[in-house]
Amino acid sequence: MWWSSLPSLALAASALASVHDQAVLSTDDPHAGPAQPAKQPNVVFFLTDDQDVHLSSLDYMPFVKRHLLDKGTYFSRHYCTTAVCCPSRVTLWTGKAAHNTNITDVNPPYGGYGRFIEQGFNDKYLPVWLQEAGYNTYYTGKLFNVHTLWNYDSPYPAGFTSTDFLLDPGTYNYLNSTFQRNQEKPKNYEGQYSTDVLAEKAYGLLDEAVQADKPFFLTIAPNAPHCNIHMHSYSDDGNQHETDFGPPVAAKRHEHLFEGVKVPRTENFNPDEPSGANWIRDLKKQNQTNLDFNDNFYRKRLQALQAVDEMVDMLFKKLEAYGIMDNTYIVYSTDNGFHIGQHRLQPGKSCGVEEDIHIPLIIRGPGVGENETTDIVTTHTDLAPTFFNILGIPLRTDFDGAAFPITKRGLQDLAVVERKEHVNVEYWGFAGSEGAYGYGPMDSFNNTYKALRVIGPGYNLYYSVWCNNEHELYDMSNDPGQLQNLLHPSQSHQKHKLLNLPIGNVIARLDSLLFVLKSCKGLRCTKPWHTLHPQGDVTTLQDALSVRFDHFYEVEQKRVVFDRCERGYLPESEGPMWEDSGKAFGGMEMFYRGGLHWSEYV
């Protein structure tokens, strides 16, 4: 079949060679931008909704493969830092972690468009900054949740030259969408397929952008492959009532595709033994009826992506016809990942599992390697700084992320300097399921956690602390499916070693790193080891594992511990903070409130 020719997305990066002088520079100097051509480059940014890496969705998009994977660079270790759409999108557009935006949900009171306005970000995010730098900015599709028929003009989103937004309550209704152009009244498209409507609007905005003869940044944000949501009733405060969460809807021309295709049966798919922690570990194994429904849900996701794939193809044809490909960067990503059946989970996101936080990022443009894969660690917090760097805009000092190189030359230079190894993951509250099978009320109250991905030479780890103070640790080099929680009480009788050290030594470092990151701001988010070791002798986990730091980490440091589970970011419920403790030291903390203590692992 045509998708079988796609190269494995897990391949290591190919050999890197030098290219022309437009290459994006290494980001050691946070205020240095790349040398720019005479004419500033353009950007076209595709931002899908809920697209996965681990369910192989890119394998079923031949035009994305042709135009982006074959002609660009795939960032194989790109992550979102909050695995749900509104907080993730705000992080993307502001360069700030969710604990600093305090936009942590999709609905009020902790999330949504109204919350974005209340927190003061309507004049402090990427489109505003781009316009200040001389760019025209265009947007079509979904911006944020609870951007509605009732609040779209209260106020209008700032920073755009021309827009055509999808609005709630029809954002996720594939056959009854509502769009709102510039400052015109909203227009309903009942009976028309929403991705096709959006595609025509994207083509029109591209025409506007080119005809304006100024550098431009165009964002195209379809709702696919998000589930189809039919809201029987909806209130302007963001509360949804009588809402159906069904499989995505395909365009008629794609409904016949992928007959018999099923969710990949990986080792963590509907496992015989429970896995994970907290409420996830209590999930029952799915029966055959449930599996059949979820396989159909999966096929509908793939079908819904076909219209996106066709739109990508047409956009590239138009860029080529306009003769601007050589001066345009094309970026393809999504807001968060997705799971279907992994760890017995029903379709959805919001968890710290790799399926939910590991997401696609592909970049094509001047100086970017063709048919390349890089394994540098990048996150959505880094995208706004990276767009600044691509476009030659001086970086802001208040970014929580860091610009990363995107060209062959820049990636080659990065190999000889300090590389980022960590991803700070955070989530609060709601983790609902989609489709016909629900979890019950527990998922609404107990899905708050802090987590950490650390990837470097010889280690690939996931560590998390839940709001009930349950802990998880996975050695993902040996357990990529996250099936064996090394910190579960059932493992306490085993004296584990990790990285050839007593496991407690490693946990102490990870917990201290997470302690810094869970409330970090600015440079502390990108250089957390420098916060712990201001003298500069530790820059990686490998450095921190030195025996001379055992007392510092295992005795002096405070631990990540929650006081209460909350639906949103309430600092008073999240235990000690680095800011409160200065150099955060003082005594041993109970490590696991189920009776397992830190000392048992040292």
Helical fraction equals 10-25%
What is the CATH architecture term of the largest domain? Answer: 3-Layer(aba) Sandwich
* Total beta strands: 18
**CA(first)-CA(last) distance:** 52 Å
What is the CATH class designation of the largest domain?
Alpha Beta
Count up the domains.
2
Low-confidence stretches: 1-37, 583-602
Largest sheet, spatial ordering of strands: 6-5-4-3-7-1-10-11-2-12
- Structural class by secondary-structure content: alpha/beta
> Could you name the CATH topology of the largest domain?
Alkaline Phosphatase, subunit A
Query: How can the largest sheet be summarized?
Result: 10 strands, mixed
CATH superfamily of the largest domain: Alkaline Phosphatase, subunit A
Strand percentage: 15-25%
- What is the tally of helical segments? 16
Global geometry? globular
Mean pLDDT: 89
- What is the C-alpha radius of gyration, as a whole number of Å? 23 Å
Structure notes:
The protein is of the alpha/beta class and 602 residues long. The protein has 2 domains: 39-414, Alkaline Phosphatase, subunit A, CATH 3.40.720.10; 448-601, no CATH class. Helix content is 24%, strand content 17%. It is built from 16 helices and 18 strands. It has helices at residues 62-69, 85-94, 98-101, 113-118, 126-132, 194-212, 288-322, 354-357, 383-390, 408-414, 503-517, 523-526, 528-532, 541-544, 550-556, 578-581, and strands spanning 42-48, 73-79, 136-141, 162-166, 176-181, 187-190, 216-221, 228-234, 240-246, 328-334, 361-364, 372-379, 422-427, 449-456, 459-466, 471-475, 497-498, 501-502. The chain has a 10-stranded mixed beta sheet, with helices on both faces. It has a 4-stranded antiparallel beta sheet with strand order 13-14-15-16, with helices on one face. Helix 1 (62-69) crosses helix 7 and helix 6 (194-212) packs parallel to helix 7. The longest helix is centred in the middle third of the chain and has 35 residues, at 288-322. It is globular. This is Arylsulfatase. It is an enzyme of class 3 (hydrolase). Its EC number is 3.1.6.1. GO terms for molecular function: arylsulfatase activity; glycosaminoglycan binding; N-acetylglucosamine-6-sulfatase activity. Residues 41-393 form the Sulfatase N-terminal domain.
